[in-house]
Amino acid sequence: MTHNPLDNRDSQPRPLRIIAALTSLVTIVVGGLPTLGVPLTPEATGWLVALVGALSAVAGAWFGERRVTPVSSPRTTDGTPLAPATPPHAGAAAAQ
Hints:
Layout: H1 15-31, H2 42-65, H3 88-95
């Protein structure tokens, strides 16, 4: 049986999971402020939870984009392609 490198997913960094967990934690804390004694009306609490949720989504996308490599166009931080522009078999076929 051959080893599939994708089977070892637990050892790979998961930046989007971390970002999602942190933004969820912040949303839970903001939603629970009234139970901690912070004097907020239900409307104010709802507005704050919505605001934190929206900002978390934008921040998560922004930070996440910088920590993952896009499959469609993998590049280094300076813009150098990580894969050849043409597949190796395409160049061999053109040479014949």
